[in-house]
Amino acid sequence: MILQSDKPKEECAIFGIYNSKEAANFTYLGLYSMQHRGQESSGIVTTDGSHLYRYANMGLVANIFTQPKIKELIGDAAIGHNRYSTTGASFLRNAQPIRVESHLGPVALAHNGNLVNSWDIRNRLERDGSIFQTTIDSEVIVHLMAKSHKTDLLEALCESLAQVRGAYSLLVLTPRYLIAVRDPNGFRPLVMGKRSDGAIVFASETCAFDITETEYVRDVEPGEMIVIDHTGMRSLYPFPKAKPSLCIFEYIYFARPDSYIFEESVYKVRKSLGRQLARVMPVEADVIIPVPDSANIAALGYSEESGIPYQSGLVRSHYIGRTFIEPDQKIRDFGAKIKYNVVKEVVNGKRVVIIDDSVMRGTTSRKIIKMIRNAGAKEIHFRVSAPPTVSPCYYGIDIPTHKELIASTHSIEEIQKYLRVDSLAYLTLDTMHKAVEGHKGGGFCDACFTSNYPVEFQDHAGNQKSLFTEYATEE
């Protein structure tokens, strides 16, 4: 049996380091600290200045990279990748970083994000004779580079990225270069740091800097390309400027609370979301409990603002694999019970406020609520520290389709009835944005809450079409 999650799936993590004798080891540690962003496969590519050395496999970082495997990854520069599939199935051939050979020499690429026009480009390239080795969108970038008439790798990369649209935070490694680049909208995070030994480090989140003893320097800016080689580091801006569209869901759910992304503390923003929720959606209650672990900080903010005590009323098991054996004698709500258990002493006879960060299908939420009700809760009030999720994401997060999203097809009153709670309330869109007021990084993408997608694409007839229209038709 496969345990189905009612949460959006993590995207990917990327990590890169230049000028370190322990490049492979540090990349392993960085990927290990960002395991929450992808658990399907992991890979590392290193270079000694002449060759690229690659190892990737399915599974978790700690299980893939044994010490003998790490020793085979030679060199003082490396890039690494943790993957959760958003485009392309979960197979070993789709594990990143990708490594290819072309007239430009050996090139490896690690990608976090999703390209919205990758299938159009792929079809065109295949008609021209290109043979793809994977089903992931990232491979179109290296094919475009290989077909470029530019003889300079940086020029070929810029020419290729000018043809793709959507979300990409990229790390590119060659025997000469380590290149970090972020799409002009800046959908996905990418940070830069420096170690005391002079090594330059890139990562999806700053939590990877803590474990590798790296000092945060700054974010890679939207539309920026940072190139590092033996002569030093330089910054380029080869793309037209675009309106920043930073993924606000990173703050709500994905990033670790101890990370800084988009130049702000995830912990601070998440706590602010909880405080805002308590102000606009108060309720009289005896105890506040979060759905662990991603809602813990929002629940703490709600508790501090409301004065209602915070308790750990749900205990989550952290040792659930992707598959498990269900007993012959069927247990009701087995999937929810194996992941969560209720602390009866916390909820029995109490008016309980449950804080969660999102509700997708609602199936797991309903089961959790039933467990808490059976444990003796007198009232149950459900509060969500984000607006209703009404649309899928096409920029690197695996959110269910429109027909699967409960808030896309049902009113709040209908959802409340389905969940069987005494009250239900979401954070409003305006209030959510108040939690990040004063953010110096610019605007945010909130398409999963509004269906207002920042990047459009063309359909096969050449007509401009929103992503909502195209993908709603396909699904």
From TrEMBL:
InterPro entries: GATase_2_dom, Ntn_hydrolases_N, PRTase-like, PRTase_dom, PurF, PurF_N. [4Fe-4S] cluster binds at residues 247, 393, 445, 448. Catalyzes the formation of phosphoribosylamine from phosphoribosylpyrophosphate (PRPP) and glutamine. This is Amidophosphoribosyltransferase. Its cofactor is Mg(2+); [4Fe-4S] cluster. Pathway: Purine metabolism; IMP biosynthesis via de novo pathway; N(1)-(5-phospho-D-ribosyl)glycinamide from 5-phospho-alpha-D-ribose 1-diphosphate: step 1/2. Its EC number is 2.4.2.14.
